[in-house]
Amino acid sequence: xxxxxxxxxxxxxxxxxxxxxxxxxxxxxxxxxxxxxxxxxxxxxxxxxxxxxxxxxxxxxxxxxxxxxxxxxxxxxxxxxxxxxxxxxxxxxxxxxxxxxxxxxxxxxxxxxxxxxxxxxxxxxxxxxxxxxxxxxxxxxxxxxxxxxxxxxxxxxxxxxxxxxxxxxxxxxxxxxxxxxxxxxxxxxxxxxxxxxxxxxxxxxxxxxxxxxxxxxxxxxxxxxxxxxxxxxxxxxxxxxxxxxxxxxxxxxxxxxxxxxxxxxxxxxxxxxxxxxxxxxxxxxxxxxxxxxxxxxxxxxxxxxxxxxxxxxxxxxxxxxxxxxxxxxxxxxxxxxxxxxxxxxxxxxxxxxxxxxxxxxxxxxxxxxxxxxxxxxxxxxxxxxxxxxxxxxxxxxxxxxxxxxxxxxxxxxxxxxxxxxxxxxxxxxxxxxxxxxxxxxxxxxxxxxxxxxxxxxxxxxxxxxxxxxxxxxxxxxxxxxxxxxxxxxxxxxxxxxxxxxxxxxxxxxxxxxxxxxxxxxxxxxxxxxxxxxxxxxxxxxxxxxxxxxxxxxxxxxxxxxxxxxxxxxxxxxxxxxxxxxxxxxxxxxxxxxxxxxxxxxxxxxxxxxxxxxxxxxxxxxxxxxxxxxxxxxxxxxxxxxxxxxxxxxxxxxxxxxxxxxxxxxxxxxxxxxxxxxxxxxxx
Length: 683
What we know:
Blueprint: H1 28-51, H2 55-58, E1 72-73, E2 79-80, H3 95-100, E3 103-105, E4 112-114, E5 120-122, H4 131-138, E6 143-145, E7 161-163, E8 171-173, E9 178-181, E10 184-187, H5 194-207, H6 211-222, H7 224-280, H8 286-312, H9 314-333, H10 340-363, E11 367-370, H11 373-376, E12 397-400, H12 403-439, H13 453-464, H14 466-496, H15 502-538, H16 542-555, H17 557-592, H18 603-641, H19 653-669
Antiparallel strand pairs: 1-2, 3-6, 4-5, 7-8, 9-10, 11-12
Helix pairs in contact: 1-10, 1-12, 1-14, 4-5, 7-8, 7-9, 7-17, 7-18, 9-17, 9-18, 9-19, 10-12, 12-13, 12-14, 12-15, 12-18, 14-15, 15-16, 15-18, 17-18
């Protein structure tokens, strides 16, 4: 299992390190299944591109089922305006006229139509309790316009109107203000009729845009240079902080441990003092007095348990601190690690872009067909709606997708989740290989990842273990997909059971199901990442690596628990310190330099800088956490497989001293002779 790099004498058993020679491909069958899924994905993409029309999303679809401003190909193969789009004289609109109507506007609040007698009858929305349902139907009645109509008021005599392009000569009163955003007239609420405000809100929610986005985009454009510079400084601040971390890991850890002790003792003291205050009141509150007194005792008992726990785990805490120092050393000495997140991010962006395009084309695939009575029922009051009006089930058309397109969308979603997890697993294993290279390079402190470490890590990952990564990411993708389906099913069932006693029971059941699935997903993710590390060390398949990882985790639960607690706190603290420092830099740039001359309100740009800084800090600290898990697993694996005598450890000098001192104490307690410590420099 080990490598004979040390040229041992005949019959001498060498130490066990990472498997460099004889490494083979793992879990090939699952890699083939993954490739088959992607072949099906490409087939679906071809179908989507042939049957879908993206302009239906980017331009909006009117009440006749046509994309606004987009010419259609008629039976003669000539592009022209839709035949059903006519002017006031019943003549088909010209190509230029139709192309100029490239904005979509929705008639929230009603319309009017020419009746047989030539009079105009206003159409209004009745009071319907489900504004969301009305909004869904209103979005099928869009009108293509040249510019967003002006809102002049909703009182009689002050209304402005939008003329539709149908035989019935329908016109709609403008009952709300709107703002142009790309090819959409986004509804607003200021001055709108109270009877349509709820529907307006739901329409804005369903199209996913709002006034905050419109106003905020202007501030972001003014602060674009400062945001770009701050994005760059986030990388610099993160790198400097990780370099300093090796020197402050121990002080920070001991400070945190002491702070927790003070917190427990102080909480107990405050409760005890407050209990005395409650007894001195007139009349005395005996019940609360004893509650706070018992609470104080509980805090002090916890404080005592905490002290004993720290004493018991002090060796593990010291090892955890040293592991963190090793992580900082690996990151500062292997500068190419910074390339892993951008490479992974590039592949994730390409995957997301491809999946969104396929999903969007599938969303717009289907046939234009007449609406049935239920599609338009309830939108307008029957008393005000003439039978000849355009807003009837005989004249309204919409895009009807078939079930096959929906199934393909679900398949696209699953493949996206699987591939996203696969890309992230590749990045994780590449970083893990860097840690394995470093730890098992040689015993002692003179460790090195060697030349072209990043290329070698990508080579070993892509050459041997893509199938193993496909297995782990598949399991996580299945759990994520089930959680998404449960969320969709919950929304539908809540709609059907709204207002009934079953609604509360249903909510509790789904909450428990989602909580259980979320817990299982976290457990699987934790086992997966340790299985990937074992795979990087030993070159075994997923199941065997997962078994070995679980066995090592259980046998070193105290050490790993201590290390993870310390590392998690340091990661949490580091993220927010990096964010705070970088937001401060961004504020100084906008406040005291030319980059903020046109910025009036700093809030939104600083929020964006904070989010970007948090993203960069999370990327860096994710590498930190991955290396911490890897080096900790390497240490545990080294301790399990080697013995320090005939199979010397790969420990650093500090780790070797810690382990030797612990072994010596254990030997004294049991009156045994301690194993002779091996010199880590010369196994």
